[in-house]
Amino acid sequence: MKIIFYCGGFEPLGGIETFCKNLLSYLLTKNNECQLICWGKMSPLLQSIEQAKIKIHRISWRWGCRWNLPDWLLLPIGLPQVKQADIIIFSKLFPIKILRKLRLQASKKAKFVFITAYRPSEIYKNSDKKCVLAALNIFDLVLVQAPTFIEDLRQLGYYKHVVSVPLIPQKINIIKELPAKGELKIGFLGRLVEDKNIPLLLEAFRCFQDKYLQAFTCETKQNNKPTLHLFGDGLLYKQLKQMAEKLGIASDVTFYGSIPNSEIERAITSCHIFAFTSRREGQCLAALEILGCGRPIVATNIGALPEILSDLRLGKIVQSPNPNAFADTLIEMARLIDQQLISASTIHSAYLERYSPEKVGERYEEIINSLFNI
Predict the structure, then answer these.
(1) Could you give the dihedral angle defined by the CA atoms of residues 338, 341, 343 and 345, in that order, rounded to the nearest 10 degrees?
(2) DSSP run (H or E) holding 309
(3) E-strand spans in 16-148?
């Protein structure tokens, strides 16, 4: 089959972009012809897709343009490819006029698949419901990352074919146990953008430091204050560094900026716990990468994170998105680590039960093949 991932804007680093690579790379091993259609500047992630022998059709547009102009400019490249495709996968709802043009150009046998990037109730709550529903009805199948997302679509009035399946995570090469006792390291992995709500994480970390010194009174803890490590880049980089200064925690917070894909596992395993204070999420592929490396997660009750962390071996959900509540949950996790009730191998094993890259890949293959049996 010829399978196209019609991505639109392809960011240098992102969960959907990494998932695109993982999905197409897997499907390529199953004797499919896989292609990517996108706009954006060349990046190491795009280069790795090329190296995997996946053909890329791209225009070098940069971010910051309104009115969906790059998506329209992509059409002359996309239309001829879509005409020859069996499966066209989308990771965002393009303007309905673009979707209709693509649908009209595709063969009658071609199948259109939409994969949600965020929980529908979070991203479409302020949208025109009729327009969203009209766009969704163009697809033959919608893939979501949690059963609650299906409920959101039903409330929108969408009753066509929907399947819940997780994103395909990276294959983890080496599992390292938690760092030795001493300085407790809390990590964050992702883009420094508004959706990730990093200001809440910085405020929660400041609260956590005070609570930690009260909860763990031994001398070694007092001599090793917890530290926060942020792996990722984004528009809020400078603003967040300034906020850390104002909160008086700058000496205990390290901003690493963007890190190459080859260094992600090393970054993850350097920390004890990872924290996500997002206000909007889909599945958060970074969370799966972290769990695959055997590190627990504390996260807000957003997107598919409650579904992922419903297995208490993997981490904890914070029901109330405020600094004190988040800090209290971090303390609970720190106690489990201090008492050696958490191990990397246990977390990794629990993760593999539901999120093994090979098993998830097989699920996608089954779903795609089933489209031609409907």
Answers:
(1) 180
(2) none
(3) 33-39, 55-59, 87-90, 111-115, 141-144
The Cα 241–Cα 249 span in angstroms is: 10
Cα–Cα nearest to 94, from 78, 111, 81, 110: 78
What residues are paired with 274 via a beta bridge?
187, 297
Q: Taking the complete model, does pTM exceed 0.85, yes or no?
A: yes
Q: How far is CA 324 from CA 236, 302, 321, 370, in A?
A: 23, 18, 9, 48
C-alpha Rg value of the chain to the nearest Å? 21
Say what the alpha-carbon torsion angle 300, 306, 308, 312 is, to the nearest 10 degrees: 90
Residues ≥6 apart with Cβ < 8 Å to 359:
none
Dihedral sign for Cα 318, 319, 321, 324, please: negative
Q: Which residue has the tokens 């001829």?
A: 80
Q: Render 166-196 in DSSP notation, one character per residue.
A: PPPPPPP----PPPPSSS-EEEEES--SGGG
Query: So what's the pLDDT on residue 13?
Result: 79
Q: DSSP code of 30?
A: T
Angle ∠(328,329,333) on CA atoms, nearest 5: 120
pLDDT at 101: 96
Query: Residue 104's CB: how many other CB atoms inside 10 A?
Result: 10
The bridge status of strand 227-231 relative to strand 185-189 is parallel
Residue 7's Cα: distance from chain center in Å?
15
How many other C-beta atoms are found inside a 10 Å radius of the C-beta of residue 1?
16
DSSP string of 243-275, one letter each residue: HHHHHT-GGGEEEEE---GGGHHHHHHT-SEEE
Mean pLDDT of 65-90: 91
d(CA 225, CA 230): 17
